[in-house]
Structures are given as C-alpha cells and as structure tokens.
Amino acid sequence: MEDCIFCKIVKGEIPSAKVYEDDEILVFKDIEPLTKIHLLLIPKEHFKTVAELDGKRAALLGRALQKIGALAPAWGLEKGYRLVINQGEEAGQSVPHLHIHILGGEPLRWEK
Ligand code: AMP
C-alpha cells in the first residue's frame, strides 16, 4: 500500500526504532508510547484486520505470538505485558495495517 505509514517503515522510507526483524515481521517502538514500554509488531505484508486472515496469514500471526512470548523478557517485559489489536473505527484503529500493541514495563490497569 503506497500511502500506508507502516508499509513505509517496512521499506525503510520512514525511520523506526526497531527491536526485532525477520523476513515476515517487524517490531518497533511506538512513537507515542502509552506505557513505559510500548512496542508494535507488524506483519510485513499489508492487510488491515483479522477479517482478512487466510490460513497463511493466520499461521504467520501464530508465529508472531510465539516470537513475542520468546522475546518479551529481552524487551524488559518479564513481569508481564498486554497485547492489543485495535480493529476498525470504533476501536480507534488509526493505521490500516494490522499491528499488535505490546504494552508493559509498569503495572497495567484493567477496568471500565
Ligand atoms: P492504532 O491506533 O491501534 O491504529 O495504533 C497505531 C499506533 O501507531 C499508535 O499507537 C501510534 O502512536 C503509532 N504510530 C504511528 N506512526 C508511527 C511511527 N511512525 N512510528 C512508530 N509508531 C507510530
């Protein structure tokens, strides 16, 4: 997607603070962190929501979750973290490229 900011990050056209990269995913620091540690994991392939998952993309997301589990301690998240995927307008998805927020580094509240 030409106008997608995360595709531009994947292509290196916009700088990012990368903490992990392989051939199918990228993890970088959120530019406006909501918590002490706030990372974003994106698939390198552009798609917007889980409604667009096929078998291949679902398997990729499974590997991405596995990677988070393996690397979270190295990212300073050994005490726990929260994963959030905002989907669509009412959830406040502002970038139309699927991304997993990885939030932590401090106690997180969970209340309405
Ligand atoms: P969402 O609102 O769920 O779509 O999340 C989009 C996230 O992308 C927000 O938390 C933004 O702060 C973050 N963001 C937007 N542009 C950049 C960028 N250039 N580098 C890092 N994070 C970004």
* Mean of residue pLDDT values: 97
* Fraction of residues in β-strands: 15-25%
Report low-confidence residues grouped into runs of 5 or more: none
The total count of strands amounts to: 5
CATH topology: HIT family, subunit A
- CATH classification, class level: Alpha Beta
Looking across the biggest beta sheet, what order are the strands in? 1-2-3-5-4
Enumerate the distinct ligands: adenosine monophosphate
Largest sheet: 5 strands, antiparallel
Helix content: 10-25%
Distance between the termini: 35 Å
Question: What does the model show?
Answer:
With 112 residues, the chain is an alpha+beta fold. The protein has a single domain, classed as 2-Layer Sandwich (HIT family, subunit A). The protein contains two helices and five strands. It has helices at residues 5-11, 55-71; strands spanning 18-21, 25-29, 37-43, 81-84, 100-104. A five-stranded antiparallel sheet has the order 1-2-3-5-4, with helices on one face. A hairpin with a 3-residue loop joins strand 1 (18-21) and strand 2 (25-29). The longest helix has 17 residues, at 55-71. The N and C termini lie far apart (35 Å).
Blueprint of the fold:
Layout: H1 5-11, E1 18-21, E2 25-29, E3 37-43, H2 55-71, E4 81-84, E5 100-104
Antiparallel strand pairs: 1-2, 2-3, 3-5, 4-5
The structure holds adenosine monophosphate.
